[in-house]
Structures are given as structure tokens and as C-alpha cells.
Design goal:
Length: 480
């Protein structure tokens, strides 16, 4: 018996489990490959996984979990500084990668385990405890480098089973997605989700409306995406009746990781007859709320707390808000088996994230509608930017910009963007005003140090940053 993936042991071995492009594995093949890999992972605490959007990444994570160890998924586009931080913080014993994958020098010192998707080995006996770490996922805060959220096995099971209840998600479902595999959305919901249900997932390698339509026309029943993907779908629909027809066939279209704009929700509903279901989660909490398939998918809301999740709104001083009036705004706090355990090596940050009685402070601001639906209205910290569904801390980008010799001062803000939700804007005081670094040079600098999705899309040049009497940058005074 495998606690997380019963279908690997008990299910029909010939059934399709994973498909990435032309390559696929049945449950029997996946059990054999992941079982063999589990034997090679051995008795280590954690291993890193070079999380390219390939079959091997899924095998690597499942194999690590079967071994009872924790996987640290790495963004294969991570720049030097980001990668160095994650490696020194998480201290993995080895890196698991697809055989042909070229690894950067920062990973050169780690033992490499090539993942063989055709290997054959037994699924080891499950000797884990529910509280054992399953994943360490790095997530940005407002300042400093990303923190590693330690996600226990219990949380994976709790969140995926709660979603199964809300979405009537079964082994009959076939999911299509094109999300990255180094974050919760694409990895936990998108890969581990179907495998826990005994269903199938087809990964597109990279997102495109054509791929989504093709798979929905070929038996896929669900699609998961971030709002940027739905925006691109909404933009493509008027000229692509085939796309509308394909989406109309889906049993379930789910959006998450950021707010789905009402305009995109309504355009998709009008063209396809399907309302996108929104769910709300976080790396630290996995999924907290969702619109249910048997409920009403109202644009702009993220539905009800999932089974097992306690959710409350609180005032600034911590007082709970009882009103379901659609008006009183409070911070969302959650409690439940879906939560992470700690930030790795950061007891200070872990303690600050929880109240004395164990509620996790999400930093998201919301109201409750009269029927209990949660409507997210904003975030507490203006220094957290959501761009393309990725959470990005302003401080991390400011630090990277300040490491460029042509930058004397830097501030980073997010501004509304129809495609990305928010785009990253850098405000720079150049070291030499006559020859400032170009916007492209600064974008390349940040992409190379951190990751391409963290690069500024717009750069403004100033003589000085607006500061208050304490010398603190007044970001609200920065405006176009
Ligand atoms: C551009 N590129 C560069 C540079 N500029 N590379 C190096 N240096 C540069 N200066 C490259 C990029 O790497 C990419 O390469 C291409 O140019 C386009 O980049 P970009 O514009 O950033 O990407 P996009 O095509 O606009 O991508 C949109 C996207 C993506 C597909 C929606 O943002 C995405 O996958 N988002 C998903 C985020 C996600 O999964 N979040 C979940 C977090 P190439 O063209 O080769 O690709 S988990 C979470 O939030 C919680 C738990 C939850 O609730 O889910
Ligand atoms: P991350 O730290 O990358 O896991 O991102 C988590 C954050 O994404 C949450 O704290 C929210 O701010 C945001 N988020 C996730 N899902 C939704 C949603 N459906 N609507 C609005 N915001 C969301």
C-alpha cells in the first residue's frame, strides 16, 4: 500500500498515468520506474529535482516520495544567485535529472542521478509518517531570498482529497496542463493530483491554446491554468471557434495562483458556455478554498473553504470578523491539515507566519459574501508582486538590481498588466546619469541572477527616489 499513490500498487497497471508529448507511462510502468528510482535515492534526507517539463521530473518526484524522502524542485531557469541560495539552504544529497539535461556549474558538486523512465524496480514498502516532509518548495517573501516551505505528506493527501470532493475529481478524469513543475500548482495539483486519483495527466511541455484544444478534443476532461493562460485563451477565442468548441467539451476548467479578471471569466463563459472554476491556495497552505462543481461559479470569487480547512477573516488587531456582508475586509487566516510545517532553517519566519493559536497568516485580504463565498480583494504587502501567476518579492529584485554596477538606487513595484496580472516595474537612480544601463541590460541581469520571470518589464530612470524623513522609500509616491 502506498499512502500517497494507492493506484501505483492497487490500480490497473495498463492504465495511462502520464503523457508528455509523444512519451507516456502507464501506471505499471510508472510504478516500476519510480520504484527503481526510489531504490537509488536511498537513505538521504532530501534530493533536488531539476524540474524541466518532462516525464523524468514526474518520475523523479514520485520516486522520491516512494522512497519516503523529500524533493526540492528546482526551476531549470533559475539564475546563479537563486540557485546558489536554494542549494546551500536545502543541502540536497543529490540532484535528479533527465539523462540529457545540461546542469549549470552550481550543481556540478552534487552527485547526479539520471532518471531512467524505463527502469524496473519494486515499489518499496511505505514506512513514512504523515508528518514527514514530502516537498520543499521555494517561495518569495517581500524581502530577502526565497524561503523553503516544508510541505508534509499529510498536506498533499489532505489537499488533493479535498479538491476531489469539491470537483468530483476521479480516476476517470484526464487533465491537460502546461504549468511549470517547480511550483505547487503544476506539480502538486497538476501531476500528483491525477496520480493520487488514479487518473491521467497530459503535460503540454509549454502552454499554448492549440495544445489545450487538441487534448480536450482527444478525451481530456479538465484543464488547469493561471489567469495569464485564461487571458490568452480569452484573446484567442473570437478568431478560433475550434478552441471555443474544445473548451465547451471540458468537464472542468480551473484557474488559480492569482485572481482571474472578471472580464476574462465572462468572455470565456460567453464563447464556450463554461464558467471557469476558481480555487485559492498558497505554497505554504496548498489549497484553501474553491468553487465547487455542484456550486455556482461566480466571477471574482474563490468559493468556499475546502473540507478540513478552517478559514477566518481578521481585523488588523487580530479580532475575528463574523460578518458575511460582502463588505468587511479582513486578512485571511487558515488552519488545517493542508498546511506546511515550517520554513526550512527559518524559525523566525515560521513563528512570524503563525498566530499563537496556530492560524497561518496568508497576507491576502478578502470579504465573505452572504452565502460564505470568499472574495479576495487584495494583498497586505504591496511588496509582493504576482506576475503570470508567479509570486515575486520586490526586495529580491531590488537587491539584484543594486548588484549591477550602473545602479545606485533601486525600487521595484508591480503595476496592472492585462496579460500578466501585474508587471514588474523598476525605478532606478543610475550611478552615472549620462550613461545609464539600458532596460534590456537590467532585465538580462535580473534574469541571469534570479529567474527570467523576475525580470523588470519596464524601467524608469530618476534623479532620486522619493523618501520619507526616516529615509524609507515611499513606493506609493512612485507613479507613471
Ligand atoms: C525573456 N526570456 C528571457 C529573458 N527575457 N530569458 C532570459 N533572459 C531574459 N532577459 C524568456 C523566458 O525565459 C521565456 O522563454 C520567454 O522568454 C518568455 O518569457 P515570459 O514572458 O516570462 O513568459 P511567458 O511566455 O509570458 O509566460 C507566461 C506563462 C508563465 C506561461 C503564463 O508566466 C507561467 O508559466 N506561469 C505559471 C506560474 C505558476 O505556475 N505559478 C504557480 C505558483 P521560453 O519562450 O523559452 O519559454 S504556485 C501558487 O501560486 C499557489 C500554490 C497556487 O495557488 O497555485
Ligand atoms: P504562491 O506563494 O506563489 O504560492 O502564491 C500564493 C498567492 O497567490 C496567494 O497568497 C494569493 O495572493 C494568490 N492566489 C492564489 N490563488 C488565487 C486566486 N484564485 N485568486 C486570487 N489570488 C490567488
Amino acid at each position: 500500500m502506498s499512502f500517497l499513490f494507492p493506484a501505483l500498487v492497487d490500480g490497473p497497471g495498463g492504465k495511462a498515468a502520464l503523457r508528455f508529448g509523444a512519451r507516456s507511462l502507464t501506471y505499471g510502468q510508472l510504478a516500476a520506474a519510480a520504484g527503481a528510482l526510489a531504490g537509488r535515492v536511498g537513505d538521504t534526507e532530501r534530493v533536488a529535482v531539476w524540474a524541466t517539463p518532462e516525464l523524468e521530473t514526474a518520475v523523479a518526484v514520485v520516486g522520491t516520495l516512494l522512497a519516503g524522502r523529500a524533493a526540492v524542485p528546482l526551476n531549470p531557469r533559475s539564475g546563479e544567485k537563486e540557485l546558489a541560495h536554494i542549494l546551500s539552504d536545502s543541502a540536497p544529497a543529490a540532484v535528479l535529472a533527465a539523462p540529457g539535461a545540461e546542469l549549470p556549474p552550481a550543481l556540478g558538486e552534487l552527485p547526479r542521478i539520471d532518471v531512467d523512465a524505463a527502469a524496473v524496480g519494486p515499489v518499496p514498502e511505505d514506512r513514512t509518517d504523515e508528518s514527514d516532509p514530502a516537498l520543499v518548495v521555494y517561495t518569495s517573501g517581500t524581502t530577502g531570498p526565497p524561503k523553503g516551505a516544508v510541505i508534509p505528506r499529510r498536506a498533499l493527501a489532505a489537499t488533493l482529497d479535498a479538491l476531489a470532493d469539491a470537483w468530483q475529481w476521479t480516476g476517470e478524469d484526464v487533465l491537460v496542463h502546461g504549468l511549470p513543475l517547480f511550483h505547487v500548482h503544476g506539480l502538486v495539483l497538476g501531476i500528483l493530483g491525477p496520480l493520487r486519483r488514479g487518473g491521467s495527466v497530459r503535460h503540454l511541455g509549454r502552454f499554448g491554446t492549440d495544445g489545450v484544444a487538441r487534448e480536450l478534443n482527444d478525451g481530456a476532461t479538465m484543464f488547469f491554468g493561471v489567469p495569464t493562460m485564461y487571458h490568452r485563451i480569452a484573446e484567442a477565442l473570437p478568431a478560433d471557434p475550434g478552441l471555443a468548441k474544445a473548451l465547451g467539451r471540458a468537464r472542468l476548467l480551473v484557474s488559480g495562483s492569482a485572481a482571474l479578471p472578471v472580464h476574462d471569466h465572462e468572455r470565456i463563459a460567453a464563447a464556450t458556455g463554461r464558467r471557469v472554476v476558481e480555487r485559492y491556495g498558497m505554497t505554504e497552505t496548498l489549497m484553501n478554498t474553491s468553487v465547487r462543481v455542484d456550486g455556482e461559479a461566480r466571477a471574482g470569487t474563490v468559493g468556499l473553504p475546502l473540507p478540513g480547512v478552517e478559514l477566518r477573516l481578521v481585523e488588523e488587531d487580530g479580532t475575528a470578523i463574523a460578518a458575511y456582508d460582502g463588505e468587511t475586509v479582513g486578512e485571511i487566516q487558515v488552519r488545517g491539515p493542508n498546511l506546511f510545517t515550517e520554513y526550512l532553517n527559518r524559525p523566525d519566519a515560521t513563528a512570524a507566519a503563525f498566530t499563537a493559536d496556530g492560524w497561518f497568516r496568508t497576507g491576502d485580504m478578502a470579504v465573505r459574501e452572504p452565502d460564505g463565498y470568499v472574495r479576495i480583494v487584495g494583498r497586505k504587502a504591496t511588496d509582493l508582486i504576482k506576475s503570470g501567476g508567479y509570486k515575486i518579492g520586490a526586495g529580491e529584485i531590488e537587491n539584484a538590481l543594486l548588484e549591477h554596477p550602473g545602479v545606485r538606487e533601486a525600487a521595484v513595484t508591480g503595476e496592472p498588466d492585462a496579460d500578466l496580472g501585474e508587471r514588474i516595474v523598476a525605478w532606478i537612480v543610475p550611478a552615472e546619469p549620462q550613461s545609464p544601463p539600458s532596460a534590456e541590460e537590467l532585465a538580462d541581469h535580473v534574469a541571469g541572477r534570479l529567474a527570467p520571470h523576475k525580470r523588470p518589464r519596464v524601467v524608469h530612470y530618476l534623479d532620486a527616489l522619493p523618501r520619507n524623513d526616516m529615509g524609507k522609500i515611499m513606493k506609493r509616491a512612485l507613479g507613471v
